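In the laboratory, one determines a bound structure by crystallizing the protein with its ligand and collecting diffraction data. In a computational setting the workflow is compressed into a single prediction: the sequence and the ligand go in, and a structural description comes out. We illustrate the idea with F0G.
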Amino acid sequence: MSDHTSPEFNPVQTSQLRCIGCDAVCEKAAQTFRCAACGDLLEIVYPGWDTTRVDVAALRAVWRQRRTSGLSVDESGVWRFRELLPSFHDPKEVITLLEGNTPLYEMSGCARIAGLRQLYAKHQGMNPTGSFKDTGMTLAASVARREGFRWVACASTGNTSASMAAYAARGGMRSVVLIPEGKVSWGKLSQALDYGAVTCQLKTDFDGCMRVLNEVVQRMPIYLLNSVNPYRLEGQKTAAIELMEQFDWQPPDHVIVPGGNLGNSSALGKAFLEMKKLGFISTLTKISIIQAAGANPLVRTMRENGGKTLIPVHAETAASAIRIGNPASWKKAVRILQATGGTVEQVSEVEIALAKAEIGADGVGCEPASAVTLAGLKKLVKQGFVKPRETVVLILTGHLLKDPEFTLKFHRGDLFVGAESEKEAGTLRPQQRAPIVLDADVDAVIQTLRKADDRLEM
Ligand code: F0G
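The predicted complex, in structure-token form:
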């Protein structure tokens, strides 16, 4: 971070923490980020936006211009949009790894498969630690340090822990991570260890880790960095603003998001609602949320009681990032579905594996949890909810290298051996490309190439 203080760094808006259940405004959040009056989650609101007009054209120009600045807070794809975030008075208060600024890819192969003319993927896995979590962590970790915390903590299925540990290290704070034993990817675990986190593997699942952590933060001066922390969601919101910039402020018809703890879908939806309110966009994009069939509390909640009370489930899916049965932000997600006119869908393990390979075959790739977006989209097109001429964006939340074991097993044909879906998995064979073991022999390599392409001649 440069020492130079940008004169325009201090944006004018004031923000408040407000309960989503009883609307109570609180000065300072409790350690659990729950409302003291009713126990519901908090969100960040900007009262000034109800009365002031924002100069939309001027802000769009400033945001674009900042891309060429040498200041880290301008280069960051989160802080670039700081006029729509809680105020920080000094860039030196900000912990950044230059997150955001992630690519938007056209996905022509996947579009054909899904039956669409135009399909895009916004790859949030291209963030510094390999997932969308960085966009929220930069803001929430900065708040933690500003409030004087020495320790930060999270429960995680992998990505949050890696991200939090990195930002804590950059900000000179200690971090503690609770992860479910045996159910987290080695790549993510190794990131947390290298970034110096105290890493505890608990003999429980993600929901159990969350329960324990809620108690810990009430007994110790430790700042909670799960997505119940509304500052996380404010940072994650910027992905939607950046997406609109990439679309030259013409909103796509649909954005499709994986659903786990349901923070990210809520954050993106909040951004679209705010951009519409402020006049950055004139129509609202539908946000649809896809879950694994084995970890489908939101799908059940919407289908069985219209979003009134959460139906928790015992979560089981190989898409480890979204193996969550009791999502904290379910009410926020229901609100976003209802406000944007989006829907929910669930997909099987075989459908996830196939979609992941299809995204890979477009040269993009993602982790299994992200692939639920394409798998779900195919169903939404078949049902007629998404029309062939509509523009759709898949949010790819994590990097292909997150779960290499999943990918290797898929290509070797081992992923579903002994599973209920073994027979259905036969349909995956055309996508499977296992490594071929050969002698160190030129002819053997040439023969293999010819088999792969009989038109390959010298
Ligand atoms: N995709 C990826 C790659 C994730 O890591 C997560 C969540 C999600 C989707 C779901 O997002 O929870 O906001 O609905 N991972 C968490 C973690 C829970 O601990 O890393 P959500």
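The pocket of F0G is lined by residues 131, 156-160, 227, 258-265, 321-322, 367, 369-370, 397-398 (CB under 6 Å). Keep in mind that any predicted model is a hypothesis to be tested, not a measurement.
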